[in-house]
Amino acid sequence: QSALTQPASVSGSPGQSIAISCTGTSSDVGAYDYVSWYQHHPGKAPKLIIYYVTDRPSGVSNRFSGSKSGNTASLTISGLQAEDEADYHCCSYTLSNTPLFGTGTKVTVL
Amino acid sequence: EVQLLESGGGLVQPGGSLRLSCAASGFTFSGHDMSWVRQAPGKGLEWVSTISGRADSTWYADSVKGRFTVSRDNAKTTVYMQMNSLRAEDTAVYYCAKDRNPLTTWGQGTLVIVSS
Fold first, then answer.
1. By the 8 A CB rule, do A72 and A21 touch?
2. Residues A57, B60: Cα–Cα separation, whole Å
3. Most A CBs within 10 Å: which of B34, B38, B103, as the mutation test of the A interface?
4. How many other CB atoms sit within 10 Å of the CB of residue B25?
5. SS3 of A42, please?
6. Nearest to residue B94, comparing CAs of B39, B25, B17?
7. Quick check: B97 pLDDT over 90?
8. Contact call for B59 and A97, based on CB within 8 A
C-alpha cells in the first residue's frame, strides 16, 4: 500500500490558520472514521493531537481541529504559534486492519 | 504518567540481527496493544508491527514480514522487536507506541543503522 498523500510543506504567519490535507483511497481514509494526526518535533516523541477524525486528547489545544470528506482528511491549525512549527503526520486504518501513515508535512511559522 | 523507553539500537551489518526493547510504565501494560513504528532518514512514519495485550495476535507490515518478530513480557512490562536479515532500507529511528488505533503515546525512539 502506498502512503497517504500530504503536502511536503505548509507555512503561515503567527495568528493565521493553515490546513494540511491527507489524501487516501476508499480502502483507508474513505473506509473508516479512524484518521489520526501526530505532531512531531524532531528528536522528540511524536504526539497524538487528533484521533477518530475530529477528537482531541485531553490537554491538546483546541487550536487543532480535524475533518474528513470522502477520501481526504484535513488538519487545521488556527491561531498559528511558533511552537506549532513541527512535522505533522496523518494516519488511517485500512481495510486490512493495519495503520497507514501519510508522507508527512513540515509546518513552518514565518 | 505513561512512559515508554526504547533501547537496543545501533550499527549492524547487512544480514545481521538486532533486538529492540521498549520498557513501559505508568499504565496497565497487559491491557493494551503495543506497536512499533519507524522513520527512515528524510522519510515519513511507517507502521512496522503491533502485538495485542495478551500476545495472542500480531500484525506486521509486508516490508518486514518473515524477518521481524514482535513479542512482549507482561511481567516485565516490556515489548521487544527481534530484527533479522537486516537490510540497508531498515535504517531508521524505531519508536514504540502504546495502543493500535490510535497510537496514543510514543517513546523517543532508538536509531538503527544497517551498513557495512
1. yes
2. 27
3. B103
4. 11
5. coil
6. B39
7. yes
8. yes
Q: Is B42 an interface residue toward A (CB < 8 Å)?
A: no
d(CA B82, CA B70): 6
- Of the residues B43, B101, B106, B110, the best mutation for testing chain A's interface (the one with the most A CB atoms within 10 Å of its CB) is B101
- Pairing of β A9-12 and β A64-69: unpaired
pLDDT value at residue A96: 85
What pLDDT is attached to residue A97? Answer: 85
Q: Round to whole Å and give the CA distance between B90 and A13.
A: 37
Q: Which amino acid is at B12?
A: V
Size of interface A-B (CB pairs under 8 A): 64
- Section A54-59 average pLDDT: 97
User: For cell 507490515, what's the residue?
Assistant: B61
